[in-house]
TrEMBL record:
<dbReference type="InterPro" id="IPR008972">
    <property type="entry name" value="Cupredoxin"/>
</dbReference>
<feature type="domain" description="Plastocyanin-like">
    <location>
        <begin position="23"/>
        <end position="137"/>
    </location>
</feature>
<comment type="similarity">
    <text>Belongs to the multicopper oxidase family.</text>
</comment>
<dbReference type="Pfam" id="PF07732">
    <property type="entry name" value="Cu-oxidase_3"/>
</dbReference>
<protein>
    <recommendedName>
        <fullName>L-ascorbate oxidase homolog</fullName>
    </recommendedName>
</protein>
<dbReference type="InterPro" id="IPR034275">
    <property type="entry name" value="CuRO_3_AO-like"/>
</dbReference>
<dbReference type="Pfam" id="PF07731">
    <property type="entry name" value="Cu-oxidase_2"/>
</dbReference>
<dbReference type="Pfam" id="PF00394">
    <property type="entry name" value="Cu-oxidase"/>
</dbReference>
<dbReference type="InterPro" id="IPR001117">
    <property type="entry name" value="Cu-oxidase_2nd"/>
</dbReference>
<dbReference type="InterPro" id="IPR011707">
    <property type="entry name" value="Cu-oxidase-like_N"/>
</dbReference>
<dbReference type="InterPro" id="IPR034273">
    <property type="entry name" value="CuRO_1_AAO-like"/>
</dbReference>
<keyword id="KW-0325">Glycoprotein</keyword>
<feature type="domain" description="Plastocyanin-like">
    <location>
        <begin position="367"/>
        <end position="502"/>
    </location>
</feature>
<dbReference type="InterPro" id="IPR034271">
    <property type="entry name" value="CuRO_2_AO-like"/>
</dbReference>
<dbReference type="InterPro" id="IPR011706">
    <property type="entry name" value="Cu-oxidase_C"/>
</dbReference>
<dbReference type="InterPro" id="IPR045087">
    <property type="entry name" value="Cu-oxidase_fam"/>
</dbReference>
<feature type="domain" description="Plastocyanin-like">
    <location>
        <begin position="150"/>
        <end position="287"/>
    </location>
</feature>
Length: 535
């Protein structure tokens, strides 16, 4: 009964429901052989895989059995009209220790490979993440035959220091050290095995769930046929290896067409002076030869190689996305942009401490989630219109910054990276068309080289050192949305802000009302949510 009251407002009753109850606890894990308190979900690390189909409703009741506040966010899930469920600091009160919160999420009009992760503090460095798939509805054609099996690979860097120690380093104003190693599905070298039958084809959905480094992914002796990137069906090109930046996800098909034996699956760090690597095992079911010798080397060429590869990833215009019509029927290149937003990252020392900023503004959280402050008209929590639409070159300063955006505008966003490290930018609630990226300083003349025909749309884009990446984005989702670095220490120390997509209409067509079970905290304590969420 309670569940149905809760659901009545913000889900579509015609689409199926999936119910999950998750218990988040600490538990002993040994990813690199050193015992640590990992964040487990229902005793598992990585957490349970979420399998869903376009438009389904996911009802996920998360019980927080940690000794501190906790939130989960859903990387790439668009939460249409529903930033209330986004699970980041700016939209949700943390689930208190010993408390619970039921997320009510509809995976509306989406397909693809994503992951969820704990969004507060440095929790992500302790696990708490898992895969999230949105399959096409049965009536929508998928541009490749069903694979013999569908495997998730969550790869990323790992620290032997626990999340509270890592947070303490950042709080004291220092940078994180270099990671201690990489893990694949929470395990170190050769501790995870994927079994394949000779002659069959498999789908691997790979996400970089790390907090500090880009990775390169490859499978010894096998080609990777790229088929999907964050919900876009790509032109099916083959690669020997693929670079995957922080927070990014993609799918490849791999055919077990080699002699029967075991092969290395490798993830290694990219663009780092010291290269860390880890391996898992691709085991042919009829194999009698185990892995031996050194794993295959990654690419030795650096940025130009990676940039070329990124540009080669294109959309299959005739394939279907979440809807039956071909992906090419949305002519993003013909839409006139209404505004250009240029966002430059920077690092600086403020009050003696390491900080990171966007257009000179280094984000600091306030005492109340921004979405709640906005809804309850609590003033003085955030400032609208402080963060400039272009870099100013001025010194960095601390601010709880929110950028205003007009609902239904179509914007060009240029991410500019004057620094020496790779940036990885994510936008919640939207996906965007990556129209261009190149080295050097962006100028309006760079638009002449944009791909206005068949680039992919995704939710996380890399920006190479001393380079830029430009995206086109339909601002079509009312709410409060986090724009952040996926490099977690940079995010934590200020390289993020919120985009407030506003509609004066105040109608459920544009945005769902506050959920009846919304947790209240900070200056929102004691405010009343509407007594019913019914129609
Ligand atoms: C979560 O797990 C802990 C440890 O096993 C247990 O004490 C607690 O009762 C569980 N909570 C729920 C809501 O299942
Ligand atoms: C992290 O390690 C420190 C000691 O280095 C310890 O005091 C702290 O309790 C640990 N935190 C967790 C969450 O395990
Ligand atoms: C906590 O879980 C109970 C069911 O066990 C549910 O009725 C309640 O709505 C949940 N709380 C929130 C805030 O979602
Ligand atoms: C594009 O998709 C179509 C059909 O949906 C498929 O037949 C074709 O092989 C795909 N082309 C490439 C190059 O991936
Ligand atoms: C917030 O202010 C707006 C505009 O004055 C008003 O329409 C709305 O009802 C207020 N919201 C709450 C929750 O009081
Ligand atoms: C993440 O940020 C840190 C601090 O600036 C930097 O050392 C590291 O190289 C960055 N990671 C990537 C992938 O560039």
């Amino acid at each position: 009964m309670l569940v149905f009251l809760l659901l009545s407002c913000c889900t579509n009753g015609e689409d199926p429901y999936r119910f999950y109850t998750w218990n988040v606890t600490y538990g002993d894990i040994y990813p690199l052989g050193v015992k640590q308190q990992g964040i487990l979900i229902n005793g598992q690390f990585p957490g349970p895989l979420i399998e869903s189909v376009t438009n389904e409703n996911l009802i996920i009741n998360v019980f927080n059995s940690l000794d501190q506040p906790f939130l989960i966010s859903w990387n790439g899930v668009q939460q249409r009209r529903n930033s209330w469920q986004d699970g980041v600091y700016g939209t949700n009160c943390p689930i208190p220790s010993g408390g619970n919160f039921t997320y009510t999420i509809q995976v509306k009009d989406q397909i693809g490979s994503y992951f969820y992760f704990p969004s507060l503090d440095l929790h992500k460095a302790a696990g708490g993440y898992g895969g999230l798939r949105i399959h096409s509805r049965s009536i929508i054609p998928v541009p490749f035959p069903p694979p013999a099996a569908d495997y998730t690979i969550l790869a990323g860097d790992w620290y032997n220091k626990n999340h509270t120690d890592l947070k303490a380093i950042l709080d004291s104003g220092r940078e994180l050290p270099f990671p201690d190693g990489l893990v694949i599905n929470g395990r170190g070298a050769n501790r995870y095995t994927f079994t394949v039958d000779q002659g069959k084809t498999y789908r691997f959905r790979i996400s970089n769930v790390g907090i500090a480094t880009s990775i390169n992914f490859r499978i010894q002796g096998h080609k990777l046929l790229l088929v999907e990137v964050e919900g876009t069906h790509t032109l099916q090109n083959t690669y020997d290896s693929l670079d995957i930046h922080l927070g990014q996800s993609l799918s490849v098909l791999v055919t077990a067409d080699q002699p029967a034996r075991d092969y290395y699956i490798v993830a290694s760090t990219r663009f780092t002076s010291q290269v860390l690597a880890t391996t898992a095992v691709l085991h042919y079911s009829n194999s009698e030869v185990s892995i031996s010798g050194p794993p295959p080397e990654g690419p030795t060429t650096q940025i130009d190689w990676s940039l070329e590869q990124a540009r080669s990833i294109r959309k299959n215009l005739t394939a279907s996305g979440p809807r039956p019509n071909p992906q090419g029927t949305y002519h993003y290149g013909l839409i006139k942009t209404t505004r250009t937003i240029r966002l430059a990252s920077s690092a600086s020392i403020i009050n003696g401490k390491q900080r990171y900023a966007v257009n000179s503004v280094s984000f600091i959280p306030a005492d109340t989630p921004l979405k709640l402050a906005d809804y309850f008209n609590i003033s003085g929590v955030f400032s609208l219109g402080i963060i400039p639409y272009a870099p100013t070159g001025g010194g960095a300063y601390l601010q709880t910054s929110v950028m205003a955006a007009d609902h239904r505008s179509f914007v060009e966003i240029v991410f500019e990276n004057p620094e020496d490290t790779v940036q990885s930018w994510h936008i919640d609630g939207h996906s965007f068309f990556v129209v261009g990226m190149d080295r050097g300083q962006w100028t309006p003349a760079c638009r002449l080289a944009y791909n206005l025909r068949d680039t992919i749309s995704r939710c996380t884009v890399q920006v190479y050192p001393k380079s830029w990446s430009a995206v086109y984005m339909a601002v079509d989702n009312v709410g409060m949305w986090n724009i952040r670095s996926e490099n977690w220490s940079r995010q934590y120390l200020g390289q993020q802000f919120y985009l407030r997509v506003f509609s004066a209409a105040n109608s459920w067509r544009d945005e769902y009302p506050i959920p009846r079970n919304a947790l209240l905290c900070g200056r929102a304590i004691g405010r009343r949510t509407p007594p019913t969420g019914s129609h």
